[in-house]
Amino acid sequence: MIQWLRRLKKAFGFSFLWLICLIYFTQGFRSFVWTAVSYQLKDLLKLSPSASQFVSSIAFFPWSIKPLYGILSDCIPIKGRKRIPYIQIATVLSLVPWLILGLNAYMRSSTWHLIIFLTAQNLGSAMADVVVDAMIAEAVRSERSSFAGDLQSISWLSMAFGGICGSLLGGYALTNLKIHTIFLLFSVLPTIQLLSCGLVEENLVGSNVSHEFSNSSNSHMVNGNNNVFDEDISIEKNSSVSIIRRRKSQKKKKKRSVFSSKYHTSENGNNLILQWLRSLKVATYSLYGAFRQPAILRPMTWFFLAHVTVPNLSTIMFYYQTEFLNLEPSFLGTARVVGWAGLMLGTYAYNRYLKKIKLRKILLWTQIGLSILSLLDIVLVSRMNVAYGISDKATVLYGSALSDAVNQFKFMPFLILSGQLCPPGIEGTLFALFMSINNFGSTVGSFVGAGLASVLNISSGSFNNLLSGIVIQIICTFIPIAFLFLIPKEATGVST
Questions:
Q1: Number of helices and strands (H, E) in the chain?
Q2: What pairs with residue 81 in β-bridges?
Q3: Is the model more confident about 418 or about 128?
Q4: 75-93 burial: b if 16+ Cβ within 10 Å, else e
Q5: Which of 344, 421, 455, 466 has the smallest C-beta neighbourhood within 10 Å, fewest atoms?
Q6: 8 Å CB contact between 461 and 326
Q7: For 144, phi and psi rounded to 5 degrees?
Q8: How far apart are the C-alpha atoms of 98 and 91, rounded to whole Å?
Q9: Which residues contact 85 (CB under 8 A, 6 or more apart)?
Q10: Contact 300, 486 (CB under 8 A)
Q11: Closest Cα to residue 301, out of 495, 487, 68, 435?
Q12: 92-105: pLDDT as tens digits
């Protein structure tokens, strides 16, 4: 392990590797602070389960427009750099909301202010996620392509480690600290991230263009001065009486030279803006042209439908577990750690045993497995587990681990198909689009879940109809199976 890290450090440099690991660790550690947000919405703002899920869905919308950040960073450099300035902007957006919410009681007590700041924070996190992926892709392409798998592995390990630490410490912090203190503590990570950006050097882009612009301006200035000099000689030859006239002419020529320089600088700036606009236009059309191809559009439509047709009741279950079952924050943090372990187990099982199986078959059994695991929620809500002597904590722990493991069986085919479908040249931006579709589907599924909870009158302290909601969710889990024809028939986890 140590030798592996040393090889990566030698290949890419310590500062680059540190920034990559820190950003991914912070992404995983977000569970530390978002658990506190859940309690803020439930206990302090007294929102109903459907209202709380509605707020969370709005706040996470920036994750649904990830291609926008990729196109901007690709096409519009800031001071000649395409990545680090955007990481800095993203980090500031991630940092400032937590500082304001931690220091200002009014802001965190107002629902609409909270929505605005949480949305801004997610905007920064999503932008950082896209840009750091682009940095990894560029580093692998320009430095050592043999390290591609190593960089991805250390990224996932950093995020998983951050998720485990955030879940464990988040439950402990909620038991012993005030929520606003948790907000302030989390802001330490974005602060370190912002400072770390200054350690990474990035090559300037468009330096040749800038150099040409500089030479162009200088040549105009030099030519102007030479013309003045030639004119001075001719005037001196004519007569010494014309010295005053020569000086006046020289001043006029200098003014023209300065004006010409400013004009060309302005013109070059306009050309640069036009170049950016053309790049944005080309990238957008390339993205649109690639995505509208049936081979890409059909599978992505299935993954979107797989989210929107199944109501997401996670927030409602959180209310049930904390209010009716009285599960403490520290235990819920432990359950999330078990969920991370299930996720990693699912990844291992897929790569070890399922990689060569057709994706249609995997997705079919994944949907069936999710419907079966939802029966654990029915057992929990109907209190059947108590009748058979099984504790609520054991039921929640097993359900969390198994659900995350099975969900990974659906996410891995998504990643595989995304990689296989991306055409050369726009891999990063198109992959960001695929992830956005997945995230947007999850957001819409959360809205559907919030709407279902509202229709069934499920509210804080009133969970009489929660069992009906879970039954509807189980039935809806089978709907995506009817659309599996959208997945390529022969596609497997092995590149073809």
A1: 20, 0
A2: 78
A3: 128
A4: bbbeeebbbbbbbbbbbeb
A5: 455
A6: no
A7: -135, 100
A8: 11
A9: 77, 78, 79
A10: no
A11: 487
A12: 999 999 999 999 99
